[in-house]
């Protein structure tokens, strides 16, 4: 075998990549190639002027080698300034910006080509750079930090593809009077942020982008984002990055993954808002920054009437959705961690995953996880709240078991001692009072829960139930409708729709009662109360044949049904129980 001849040397490598080259090729391939070659010549000229040389041109990527890191940085600033000026002279959709990554390290040189991990690191770094921007490694930063007026923004350490050790990445912008690519991020001090520390995840809400020239669209976009930050902070279990930090990232060209790493946030909320023809359209999304995966996105179209009430409505709706989407994502994430290594908050998420399956066995497993979490941290408000909910759920299945309700109250009151601004204990105390037949007391607890967290769908549904028991069906309906808006995919939505059907029965809107009961049964066909209500509403609306068919299904599914189940419901006025039973009995009389 022939002997291979190569040398090793210390070098600084710039990896340069054209942004949007494939898009331009799709529009006009000849024009795209010409534009690339024109900019490539600029890059080659700048690199040569500062003592470097280009090599390894492949497709829309270029490599350059320098002996001095300072000269490499100056060359990168020079060719990017020249390309920015060139792009400004062409139509916006035909511009071709370039981004670059710089790394300094040991390379192998053979026949004019450079090899080694440090070359590969430069190639990976350019993927972090914004359009017309520059990313460097910590190694290069140590060489240039005291010899330039550039502004450096530390994004933290990353594991790069096929690189064994983590690499610290910094974004570089011009200092002084030069272009300030990184200036909006300057307050992020190098080394300050540590990505994804142990403990519950953090979420950051970026300023929403206003799509349009009107200033009030931008103001409203900021207002919605602020409302979401405020609402998420009231969920208590989720850490929320302060507006002062997250609002620095108005330019999202860095990408959510890098912004999340800089802020130490596992989840990023971003969006756009546009106004047209008396309406607004808001697009919002939730991204998992650990893997770049889009977790959730949704479009909201609303009539533009009262800006402030509109902000409240959309903001609270998004908060409720985000709370559940992050919770769901974290439940799934716990399965990537060995059971014995789960932290307290992860035990809670795993328990919630089993709880949401709603089987007898899963419910038992959920309690095991909650109990283990309680043993590890008996003063955790998150754990105390989950135990309160678990015993409330079992009490509901057992039609108000007093021992379980006592446990709900004990855990909820202890949770309040740990965190008096948590809405959940107030809601669980209110729910327990409903089960005990004390709706007036329940309403007080629930009003406090809603005051603390207006986006708390469970509290709004429970308030509707309290109003029903007090005899105010018309006043209950808005609470159930708010719950539908705030939590349209809630696991326990079947119950809220069942309660809505009751309210419509009491105001004698039979068609609405039937529709609500149908929606409840679509979600939970075995829910006896919804079918019971539907049968009575069908009879009162004159649809006797349909009522008979539903009664046959009811009798098959619930052969042990007794009217005592309905008499157990603690309406303040027993005439309400009699009213519902009489509706149902009409169907029995014709069967």
TrEMBL record:
- Guanylate cyclase domain location is 12-126
The record's InterPro entries line, in alphabetical order, gives: A/G_cyclase, Adenylyl/Guanylyl_Cyclase_3/4, Nucleotide_cyclase, TPR-like_helical_dom_sf
Write down the Gene3D superfamilies for this protein, in alphabetical order: Nucleotide cyclase, Tetratricopeptide repeat domain, TolB, N-terminal domain
Q: What is this protein called?
A: Adenylate/guanylate cyclase domain-containing protein
Read off the lineage from the record.
Bacteria, Pseudomonadati, Pseudomonadota, Alphaproteobacteria, Hyphomicrobiales
């Amino acid at each position: 075998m022939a002997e291979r001849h190569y040398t090793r040397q210390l070098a600084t490598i710039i990896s340069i990549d054209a942004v949007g080259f494939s898009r331009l090729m799709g529009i006009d391939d000849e024009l795209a190639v010409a534009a690339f070659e024109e900019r490539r010549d600029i890059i080659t000229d700048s690199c040569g002027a500062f003592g470097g040389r280009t090599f390894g041109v492949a497709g829309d990527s270029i490599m350059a080698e320098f002996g001095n890191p300072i000269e490499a940085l100056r060359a990168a600033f020079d060719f990017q300034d020249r390309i920015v000026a060139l792009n400004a002279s062409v139509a916006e959709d035909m511009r071709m910006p370039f981004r670059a990554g710089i790394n300094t390290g040991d390379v192998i040189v053979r026949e004019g080509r450079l090899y080694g991990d440090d070359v590969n690191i430069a190639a990976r770094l350019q993927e972090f750079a914004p359009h017309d921007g520059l990313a460097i490694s910590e190694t290069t930063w140590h060489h240039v930090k005291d010899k330039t007026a550039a502004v450096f923004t530390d994004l933290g350490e990353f594991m790069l593809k096929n690189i064994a050790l983590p690499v610290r990445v910094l974004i570089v912008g011009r200092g002084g009077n030069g272009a300030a690519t990184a200036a909006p991020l300057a307050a992020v001090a190098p080394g300050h942020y540590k990505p994804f520390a142990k403990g519950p995840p953090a979420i950051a809400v970026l300023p929403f982008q206003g799509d349009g020239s009107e200033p009030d669209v931008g103001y409203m976009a900021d207002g919605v984002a602020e409302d979401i930050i405020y609402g998420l902070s009231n969920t208590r279990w989720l850490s929320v990055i302060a507006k002062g930090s997250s609002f620095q990232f108005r330019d999202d060209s860095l990408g959510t993954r890098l912004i999340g790493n800089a802020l130490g946030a596992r989840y990023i909320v971003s969006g756009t808002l546009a106004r047209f023809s008396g309406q607004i359209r808001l697009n919002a999304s939730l991204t998992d920054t650990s893997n770049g995966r889009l977790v959730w996105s949704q479009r909201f179209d609303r009539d533009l009437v009262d800006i402030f009430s509109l902000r409240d409505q959309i903001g609270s709706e998004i908060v409720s959705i985000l709370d559940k989407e992050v919770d769901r994502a974290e439940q799934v994430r716990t399965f990537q961690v060995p059971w014995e290594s789960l932290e307290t908050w992860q035990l809670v998420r795993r328990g919630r995953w089993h709880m949401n399956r709603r089987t007898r066995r899963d419910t038992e497993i959920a309690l095991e996880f909650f109990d283990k979490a309680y043993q590890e941290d008996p003063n955790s408000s998150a754990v105390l709240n989950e135990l309160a909910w678990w015993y409330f759920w079992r009490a509901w299945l057992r039609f108000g078991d007093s021992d379980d309700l006592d446990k709900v109250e004990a855990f909820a009151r202890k949770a309040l001692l740990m965190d008096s601004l948590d809405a959940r204990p107030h809601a669980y105390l209110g729910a327990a009072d409903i089960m005990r037949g004390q709706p007036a007391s329940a309403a007080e607890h629930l009003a406090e829960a809603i005051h603390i967290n207006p986006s708390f769908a469970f509290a709004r549904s429970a308030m509707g139930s309290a109003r029903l028991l007090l005899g105010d069906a018309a006043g209950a309906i808005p609470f159930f409708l708010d719950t539908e808006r705030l939590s349209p995919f809630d696991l326990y939505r079947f119950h809220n729709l069942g309660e809505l059907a009751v309210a419509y029965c009491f105001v004698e809107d039979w068609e609405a009662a039937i529709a609500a009961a149908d929606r409840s049964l679509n979600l939970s066909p075995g829910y006896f109360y919804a079918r019971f209500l539907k049968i009575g509403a069908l009879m009162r609306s004159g649809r006797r044949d349909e009522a008979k068919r539903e009664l046959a299904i009811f009798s098959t599914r619930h052969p042990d049904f007794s009217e005592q189940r309905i008499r157990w419901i603690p309406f303040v006025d027993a005439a309400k129980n009699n009213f519902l039973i009489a509706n149902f009995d009409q169907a029995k009389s014709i069967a």
